[in-house]
Amino acid sequence: MSFPAIYLDGVSAREQAVEFSISHTGLIFQVAGMSCFWSADELELIDLTDGGTRLRLGHTSMPDARLLIVEDGAVDRLHETLPQVFSNRRGGIRRDLKRLAIGTAGICVGLLVILAALPLLVGALASLVPISTEQEFGREAERSIALILPEVRRSCVSPEGLEVLQRMTDELLTGLDLDPKPRVRVVPDGLVNAFALPGGQIILFEGLIRNAQSPEEIAGVLAHEIGHVAYRHGVEQVIRQSALDAIFSIIVPGNVGGSGGQLAEFLASQSYGRDAERQSDRFAVERLNALDIRADGMIAFFDRAASDPGRDGWGVGLLSYLQSHPGAEDRAASIRAGATGTQPILDAREWTALRRICQKKVEAS
Amino acid sequence: MNEDDKQGWPEPAPPQEPSVPQVTPAEADGGGTGDSLELTFSATRRQFRKLVLRQMLMMVATFGVYWFWARTNVRRFIWGHLSLGGSRLEYSGRGMELFLGFLIVGVALALAFWIIQFAILAIAGPQFAPFAWLLTLYPLLGILGVIAIYRRHRYMIRRTSWRGIHCSLSGSTGGYVGQIILPLLATVFTLGVALPWLTITIQRYLVSNMTLGSERFVYQGRSTDVFGRWVLCWLLMPLTGGLALAWWRGFTTQYMLRQTRLGTLGFSSEIRPMQFVSIYFFGALKAFLIVNGIFFVIFSILFAGGSLPVPGQEGTFDAGQLVLYAIPYMLFMVIIGPVSYSAYLYFVEYPTVEHVFQTTTIVGSMDIENIVQVADSDRGAGSGLDAVLGMDGI
Q1: Cα(B197)–Cα(A225) distance, rounded to whole angstroms?
Q2: What are the residues whose beta carbons fall under 8 Å from the beta carbon of A316, sequence distance 6 or more?
Q3: pLDDT tens, B303-356?
Q4: A22, A326, B39, B99 - which has most CB atoms within 10 Å?
Q5: Which chain B residues are closer than 8 Å to A263 by Cβ?
Q6: Are A198 and A88 in contact, with CB atoms under 8 Å apart?
């Protein structure tokens, strides 16, 4: 039984009316007096439209040739005789899903590789950033923080307190040759917090000193912040954040580049990530051990932080320290495990002087 | 073939007088001097809706990755329902090509952004970095956007065929940029007044480089023809909240069709630009209502319990931060993205396309047999640039 169809040879735009027959091996039809045989395994379903009544068939070896079938009877007969044609559909959902699965798997693997490699890459890139640039970041961060906490613009400078602070800092830096060299100042604000900015500036809040029950607590926190400076965590964070921004702008098609303005905000957020915090903790413990200074102060500080209900937000209480330096319970435990020091860092007179450092204040330069 | 080879085959039809087949080719009997070609668009909104809904679900289920296939399926649907002279157009583009194109461009752009951002940070310092970044970003995006128009059209044209004959687009990205750079700068520096120059230049480059097999399209448009109406649009833009642009799109589409010829064939267009305005206005409104409705539902479900999960409060490690930041964001985008895209397609793009096809006729006649296949020029990779820049639509 033969059916009518239209044949396109893929060479000219001329349509030719043909009659074709279906067998289990393929289709046969006559064109310009010649017989053409399209075998079943070379048939390609280009399109099936109009509720399955219009069929466009292609040929794998002659990609531009077409056989257009519009008769219902023909399509049904094809279904019966050559059902495999209908599963080899170009753009069909089965092919789609297979490709999609492969594609999605590929992306996931790619993303995992990137995420795994990112810390290494970030570390390498951080070392390429010049110190002067880093210090500029730090200055900018200070300015941003000052917008939220205006007291940051002022420093506590009572002479005896300053001397003790400097001595403590120098002692903690013994044997280290850090570039940028850490500089410490105390800010007259009741916040119980401390942070290290890119470029070496370390800021301690008066609240931290007042809240401390021993000078070794301050020493521990200060050593931790020096660790951030030593490892250039600030710069790493900047790089990491810009990488994430770039990746995000691309992953979400149509959402390009929204990040510039958030940079300053971000520098101010001070969240260096758990790994960086742990690294700084280890540094602090090593420092204290090397100088044979007791770590029990630092441990006590974290114990207190973990149990203090405190108040939320950038307010009062130990909780604010926790928010930027998280995981107090674990950290107390790991410090306790590694600490070996035995000596105090300040005597009673020095400790008193330090606690009174904010009796004199100036605008910081 | 011998008789023996035809074992198991039905009797072939004997050599015969051409019996009248039930399907008539568009060509008149005896190969005339010319044929007129009718343009018909046979899709229905209902069919399109079914398609769009299915694509939307697939997109949501695949976190948006299916978008490239969805777009391809939409194009295939539209091409496949458009007939010239009784023969349907074919679209041979593939989702995988778009996807790979996107990856390639995406990676390149991400790297470029990262490097540029960082360079700016180092040079301009954190204080001026945001400004410097915007100053660099917008021109960059502007140029990339205009290039993306070319590459998107080039991809679609090269994947179009009619009666087995391929369409092609010659020229190159470099050639294109060379042509549009002056009009683009003029448009920017005149705050948009010079836009017709850019529009017509793009139209000219695309149309006059386009071929259907051995026949080349010809474009006769000039920007001076349309300047007057643009100035009016430009003045009305603030008053109409940008709807004047919809009018402009309708108008320039009509203009382009009327200025285009293919051999002895021309295009007559009765597009009503005001119809574009109406489609955009009501379409956008409907899309907006639906998207917001869904957004509201999702929002209520996600945050029924309590407060927003705020990232960055707990110090977290890189991957952790990525996850905390990313999850609410991506969940949101995963659903809203496909829904918005689908709503836009159904309420705005499709009615627009439908209107264009229903108001366009082909005039003149041409000997179809003269159109022959030309050896396949470079088919090119999938256009990824417009995908990265989020140039949605068809």
Answers
A1: 60
A2: A190, A191, A192, A207, A310
A3: 554 444 444 444 333 444 455 555 666 667 678 888 889 999 999 999 999 999
A4: B99
A5: 121, 126, 129-130
A6: no
Q: Any chain A CB within 8 A of the CB of B310? A: no
Rg of chain A, C-alpha, whole Å:
36
The identity of residue B295, as a single letter, is F
Q: Closest by alpha carbon to B253, among B288, B235, B279?
A: B279
For residue A16, the chain B residue with the least C-alpha distance is B25
Domain ranges, ordered by start, for chain A:
2-87, 92-128, 130-363
> Tell me, what's the ipTM?
0.71
What is the number of structural domains in chain B? Answer: 1
The interface residues of chain B toward chain A in range 158-177, judged by CB-CB distance below 8 A, are 161-166
| pLDDT of B181 above 90 | yes
Over residues B14-30, the pLDDT tens digits come to: 444 444 443 444 433 33
CA dihedral A7, A10, A12, A14 (to 10 degrees): 10
**Domain assignment present for B56:** yes
Which pLDDT does position A281 carry in this prediction?
A: 87
Residue with tokens 């940070």: B121
Is B315 a member of any domain?
Answer: yes
**Tens-digit pLDDT profile for residues A285-303:** 999 999 988 888 888 887 7
Instruction: Render pLDDT for B87-113 as a digit per residue (tens, 0 to 9).
Output: 899 998 888 888 888 888 888 888 888
Q: Is the pLDDT of residue A269 over 60?
A: no
Count of residues making up chain A: 365
Specify the pTM.
0.70
pLDDT at B257: 95
Q: A364 in the Ramachandran plot: left (φ > 0), alpha (ψ -120 to 50) or beta?
A: beta
Q: Of all helices (H) and strands (E), which one includes residue B91?
A: strand B87-91
For chain B positions 325-384, those within 8 Å of chain A (CB to CB) are: 325-326, 330, 333, 337, 368-373
pLDDT in tens, A138-196: 887 788 788 778 888 899 999 999 999 999 999 999 988 888 889 999 999 888 888 88
Q: Please check whether residue B243 lies inside any domain of the structure.
A: no
- The amino acid sitting at B100 is L
Q: A2-87 belongs to which CATH class? A: mainly beta
Distance between CA atoms of residues B360 and A35, nearest Å: 40
Q: Coil, helix or strand for B305?
A: coil
Q: Quick one: which of B164, B169, B167 has its CA closest to B151?
A: B169
With 0-12 CB in 10 A as exposed, 13-18 as middle and 19+ as buried, what is B227?
Answer: middle
In a domain, B370, yes or no: no
pLDDT band at A311 (very low <50, low <70, confident <90, very high): very low
Contact A239, B318 (CB under 8 A): no
To probe the interface with A, which of B67, B71, B163, B367 has the most A CB atoms within 10 Å? B163
**Tokens standing for residue A128:** 């390429």
Distance CA A306, CA A331 (A): 10
Name the β-bridge partners of A15.
A8
pLDDT at A253: 46
Q: Please tell me whether residue B61 adopts helix, strand or coil conformation.
A: helix
Tokens of B83: 């007939």
Q: Which long-range contacts (CB under 8 A, 24 or more apart) does B283-286 make?
A: B283/B344, B283/B347, B283/B348, B283/B351, B284/B347, B284/B348, B286/B343, B286/B347
Domain enclosing residue B62, as ranges: 37-91+272-358
C-alpha pair distances (Å), A345 with each of A3, A172, A194, A195, A305:
100, 10, 19, 21, 22
What are the pLDDT digits (tens) for A223-261? 999 998 998 888 887 777 777 666 666 655 444 333 333
pLDDT band at B273 (very low <50, low <70, confident <90, very high): very high
Residues 6+ away with beta carbon under 8 Å from A250: A256, B106, B107, B109, B110, B113, B388
